[in-house]
Hints:
With 140 residues, this protein is α+β, with helices and mostly antiparallel strands. The protein is built from two helices and ten strands; from the N terminus they run E-H-E-E-E-E-E-E-H-E-E-E. Strand 5 (61-64) and strand 6 form a beta hairpin.
Amino acid sequence: MAQPPFHLAFPVSDLEATRSFFVDLLQARVGRESDRWIDFDFYGHQISAHLAPEQLGQVHHNPVDGEQVPVRHFGVILPWDEWHALAERLKEANVEFLITPTIRFAGLPGEQATLFILDPSGNGLEFKSFQDPGQVFATE
């Protein structure tokens, strides 16, 4: 059975910069919109960018496998080949990585490819992939 799509709303400071980032760079499609928000089809999930610059602020980090991961972030788990194609597309677009494409937890349960970028408002996005999708929730 397919997983149901999720919905996530997040604050942004500039709707047009957000539109360009998600549509032009990440290839999301625009759904409903107003002068205060835009819905995107983000890999089959509905995310809503709401104009709320006062909600943006300092980014907090936690250490994870030797990297400083932004506490507040969202993203998707992509098939292995799709993740690598995205990583290459981001490199070719000269996107600044918060965490460069890497393999996290190498040789351990939950080994994954991961990368982090920031949207124009400073929201963290993580894209990850597992060669073995059965490892997504692996603990041992």
